[in-house]
Amino acid sequence: MTYSIRDLENRIHDAIKKIPLDLSPQALYDPIRYVLSCGGKRLRPILTLMATNLFSDDIGLSLSPAVGIEIFHNFTLLHDDLMDRADMRRGNPTVHKLWGDNAAILSGDAMLIQAYTYIADVPPVVLPEVLSLFSVTAMGVCQGQQYDMDFEKRMDVTEAEYMEMIRLKTAVLIACSLKMGAILGNASTFDSDLLYRFGINIGMAFQLKDDLLDVYGDAETFGKNIGGDIVCNKKTFLLIKALENSNPSQRKELNKWLVAKDVDRFSKINAVKNIYDELNLKAISESLIEKYYLSAFDCLSNLPVADDRKKELLLLADNLMQRDK
Amino acid sequence: MTYSIRDLENRIHDAIKKIPLDLSPQALYDPIRYVLSCGGKRLRPILTLMATNLFSDDIGLSLSPAVGIEIFHNFTLLHDDLMDRADMRRGNPTVHKLWGDNAAILSGDAMLIQAYTYIADVPPVVLPEVLSLFSVTAMGVCQGQQYDMDFEKRMDVTEAEYMEMIRLKTAVLIACSLKMGAILGNASTFDSDLLYRFGINIGMAFQLKDDLLDVYGDAETFGKNIGGDIVCNKKTFLLIKALENSNPSQRKELNKWLVAKDVDRFSKINAVKNIYDELNLKAISESLIEKYYLSAFDCLSNLPVADDRKKELLLLADNLMQRDK
Fold first, then answer.
1. Number of Cα atoms under 13 Å in the Cβ half of residue B243
2. Hey, are the CB atoms on B127 and A132 less than 8 Å from each other?
3. What distance in Å separates residue A23's CA from the closest CA in chain B?
4. Model confidence at B322, in pLDDT bands (50, 70, 90)?
5. Are A106 and B146 within 8 A, CB to CB?
6. pLDDT at B222 over 90
7. Residue A135 is nearest to which of B113, B127, B147, comparing CB atoms?
8. Measured between CB atoms, which of A82, A102, A139 is closest to B113?
9. How many CB pairs under 8 A join A and B?
10. Read out DSSP for A195-211?
11. Which residues of B touch A146 (CB under 8 A)?
12. From A39, A53, A69, A297, which residue has the greatest number of CB atoms within 10 Å?
């Protein structure tokens, strides 16, 4: 049987609720409980269960590592928010705002260890492969975060460098989630590698869509958060392409806003967005997203699994591409 | 054959030098290389190799996990120094002083992942046991660090609470180092558990000795760092016993120094040390250290391994007990 996205979300939700976190010392575990209860799409663990479900009816096979991946993802958000000094996450105050920097550091460390504990809860025969996949991925995510921070201080980031950064920071974990699920569903190496490539392509498209929504997303849905990347000069695909494609006068205008201090938020957003519009960056970005999406679709088409089994994964990929937040 | 402490130290030294750290992004790996090159006693990985050597001549069996434990230990120092805002470690500036807080956070995270990679490099048949031992230990170290930070804000820490804190923060990793080496040397569960208990006792004695040396260590060796725990009101065994055993006038004097701001460093150290002397805390502490040391010795005596094999481990334990820094 093929489980629906909703079914899988519920399984993940229940499994996360069962993580024993009512432990001592409270100051270590309270922030972990808080972070894991603040929600999120649970995209990565759902992908793990879905990948298992492509090959097996027993999605329980990958429930524990799926939870481990979600704990890891939330650990990266916790430490990233601390490094970025972000006040809010998913509409709630961040851990370092509520409990201080030290709590964010140490509870994050504990989450990384806990992630490993859940990921290691797999049959011994696949443990070396699962573990190695996860460690390489986790190190890649750290590398991606470092590149992202490095880019803050640079004005000459190339498109290729940006693509490598988002591959590491976002795509490898999505790909790992899928491949791990496939391994636990006893898929062949060919099949699990195909799902990894599907995941990389979906992950790239996902992050490019994020960049796009920050500027062109529905203001109703995004509320006052729209343009956040522009305000803080984040080196997104749009800004990098704008710096690359702009004529001298556009470049001058762009630089003016990049160095300006204490500017009006909306004036800056409008000005930068105008340049993006002049450079046709929405269409350029959408076409690149489409390219990655089609590559992902290709990978899935080549997977020797009945089409009926693939439909929920395709639906999820479509949802990600068509989302407006 | 039984390897000498020096032999094992050299093996660890060479293995650490071979860790590939000349990688991109440089900002992620430079702090890791720095931390691992700043030295230290390499106590924990030496214990791992020694434990293997009790049961096998092939210490190469546990070289990789020994390196993993040393990386983990240095990760804890890196994040602890950040949380404690410590400027110096082993005579060198700390990572957050040199590269900033974010580098300390992210490079530390990468070290924890790298530790897992080295620890997982063991024969598949022992991987689940080794990994579970390590994760439980690593979580224990986080719990210990949290208790230590919690104690900063408390004046009513009991001796029992303190003992549990140092068991978690210090002893479990030493015990884990030994047990992991034993497992890789193919020791029986009985033997590896005995070495774990040996390690807990040595670890407790080790930390109590640290507390003692901070106050009663050789000023020549310690230099101006002597009394550092007293200056920052650290809840050491000595301070906790002093708060517990003091008469009203001693308690009043102690409290005066604990709340005093901008006091002369040496006046405070002398005054608090005087109270410790009046309460005979040096002897009380030494007798507790002796108790743990004897318990450790007992564990090792019960280990069904030829005495000749045990001699380097006993020598190392003696060195730890008799050290003056």
1. 19
2. no
3. 10
4. confident
5. yes
6. no
7. B113
8. A139
9. 104
10. HHHHHHHHHHHHHHHHH
11. 25, 27-28, 106
12. A69
Supply φ then ψ for residue B87, to 5 degrees.
Answer: -85, -30
Residue to test with chain B: of A80, A102, A107, most B Cβ within 10 A: A102
How far apart CA A255 and CA A247 sit, in angstroms, is: 12
Pair A173, A44: CB distance under 8 Å: yes
**Rounded to a whole number, what is the distance in Å from the CA of B128 to chain A's nearest CA?**
7
- For the cut 90, the answer to whether the pLDDT of residue A218 exceeds it is no
Range B215-226 burial, b when 16+ CB lie within 10 A, else e: bbbeeeebeeeb
User: Alpha carbon of A233 to those of A194, A227, B182, B235: distances in Å?
Assistant: 36, 10, 54, 45
Asked whether the predicted pLDDT for residue B162 surpasses 90, the reply is: yes
Give me the count of residues in chain B: 325
Predicted pLDDT of residue B224: 54
Rounded to the nearest angstrom, the minimum Cα separation between A239 and chain B is: 22
CB B276 within 8 A of CB B247: no
Cβ(A51)–Cβ(A179) below 8 Å: yes
Q: How many domains is chain B partitioned into structurally?
A: 1
Q: Hey, are the CB atoms on B116 and A105 less than 8 Å from each other?
A: no
Give pLDDT tens digits for A14-58: 999 999 999 999 999 999 999 999 989 999 999 999 999 999 999
- Whether B281 has a pLDDT exceeding 60, the answer reads yes
C-alpha gyration radius of chain B: 20
The domain in which residue B176 lies consists of: 5-322
Contact B88, B46 (CB under 8 A): no
Q: What is the mean pLDDT of residues B10-26?
A: 97
CATH for A40: 1.10.600.10
CA distances from B35 to A145, B105, B252, B258, B260 (A): 20, 13, 42, 33, 35
Report chain B residues whose CB lies below 8 A from the CB of A110.
139, 142
Give the one of A124, A135, A149 whose C-beta lies nearest to B117's C-beta: A135
Identify the pLDDT of residue A101: 98
Report the run of H or E that residue B88 belongs to, with start and end.
strand B88-89
Residues of B with CB under 8 A from a CB of A: 24-25, 27-28, 79, 82-83, 101-102, 105-106, 108-110, 112-114, 116-117, 120, 124, 127-128, 131-132, 135, 138-139, 142-143, 145-147, 149-150
Residues B298-320 have a mean pLDDT of 96
Mean pLDDT of B56-85: 97
Residues above pLDDT 70, as percent of chain A: 99
C-alpha closest to that of A190 among A292, A297, A305, A293: A305
Q: Which tokens in the block code for residue B10? A: 């050299």
Quick one: pLDDT at residue A322? 87
- In this prediction, does ipTM exceed 0.90? yes
Q: Is the pLDDT score of B225 beyond 80? A: no
Please say whether the dihedral angle defined by the alpha carbons of residues A263, A269, A272 and A278, taken in this order, is positive or negative.
Answer: negative
B83: chain A residues, CB-CB within 8 Å: 101-102, 105-106
